[in-house]
Amino acid sequence: MMDEEDPLAEYRSKRDFSKTPEPEGGTVRSSDKPIFVIQKHDASNLHYDFRLEVEGVLKSWAVPKGPSTDPSTKRLAIPTEDHALEYADFEGNIPEGEYGAGTVMVWDHGTYRNLRAEKEDAEARMTMTQSLEDGKVEIWLEGKKLEGGYVLIRTGSGKGARWLLIKMRDKRAQPERSVVEEEPKSAITGRTLQEIRESTID
Predict the structure, then answer these.
(1) Contact present, 58 and 52 (Cβ < 8 Å)
(2) Does the structure show a pLDDT above 50 at 2?
(3) Which of 17, 80, 118, 123 is the most buried (most CB within 10 A)?
């Protein structure tokens, strides 16, 4: 079981930081504008890691098909261990033999707002931690590629719990668009996965 005093205990236990360029973590900050990041991860299977800053760590989900801008599309989001805040800037290669071996791209990043904290009814307002426990997260993303409202809804319980990532019906919805196909490059360097893979800079 994860050390309750160290939310990154599981994250650190899975990694040998003498071999992987991934950040060990340690930064704790409080901000009125918490960050989000979506990392394209070409590991054993290509997927997208969706991460939200909550109480000093990045709450994380693996989204096999990546995010959608179509409100009628539900994307499976599998919860993974909390990641270090510094991971939001990580773009590079995880060596073979290490956990998550493969190439990581910062596909999108920006800030978000907790929409459940903005409810008119004070009794209905929830922090992000409360929303996660409740199994329903409503956020407004301000990224380079994704904008607008998104919902994360938990299905099932316990170790078998899964989440669904769904675009809200708002002016930023684009049902006709396939954003992961139209925007394949890094949001911070403009590189492709192949260029990152071949780079000696981690």
Answers:
(1) yes
(2) no
(3) 80
